[in-house]
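User: I'm curious what two different proteins look like when written out as structure tokens. Can you demonstrate?

Assistant: Sure. I'll show them one after the other, since each token string lines up with its own sequence. Here's the first protein:
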Amino acid sequence: MDKISLSVKEYYLKGVFQIYELHVKDLEWDEVLSSRFLGLILNTIKLREYFDLYVIDSLTYLVTHAREEDILNFFTEARNIVEEKNKSIIITVHPYAFNEEMLVRMRSISDVHIILSVKEIGDRIVKLLQVPKLKVQ
């Protein structure tokens, strides 16, 4: 985090910034396992409601093996947590993880949709940040 000029060490030491990782080495992914992990993520958020912000980086691998119904349920439940508990949830997913129809559905559930891309402009490589959807309250 220091590389992007965002020091979180103090918050981590105070216990107000926590990191959880899923240990998934050597797992054979399928729809059932992906569904369970999506549920585990939601339960972890619900059990730790004292945080205001949750960042999930990244759901790509989980959703490529999950059923559409489980993905939609996950995002709907996350949306409900945001609205009912006044929380913020940031989820990263590579766009190739969804077909076009699912992308449309995900965008409709979400308050914000951000696209980060890398483009070559002349002899320079630049990162572009596009915000096609931003719900302001």
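Here's a second, unrelated protein for contrast:
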Amino acid sequence: MRMEMRIQACLVASNATPSSSLLTRQSDMNLLFLGTSAGVPTKTRNVSGVALHESKGKGWYLVDCGEGTQHQVLHTKLTFHSLKAILITHVHGDHCYGLPGILASAAMGGRTAPLPLVAPKGIQTWLEATCAVTQLCLLFALEFR
């Protein structure tokens, strides 16, 4: 089930200075739950994934990316070209196992713009190993923060 609500948000990358923040001004954003189940999906709920969509423009941010998030995005008007950053809260599978699929879809869809990824250090190591083993070739740079 997807729920949308309007929020006032100020999204600042962890450990970022104001000049390098992903978004430093207060702006209206829509919150779209892509998954709210913990640990494992259910028949009616996907695992963790939340889209923060700017109310003006097409830009959006993905907070957590559990397995199946890519499929949930297909049921929205969001595109991987307009994805501004991915933020992973912690290294548990239900928060990050969807990353390789999202990144592969973005690459196969022709994304070339760099993509900021705010995540714990373990995510970078895991993604680099996954890309090497599966021969996942990204046409864009991942900017780990």
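A detail about the second structure: The mean pLDDT is 83.
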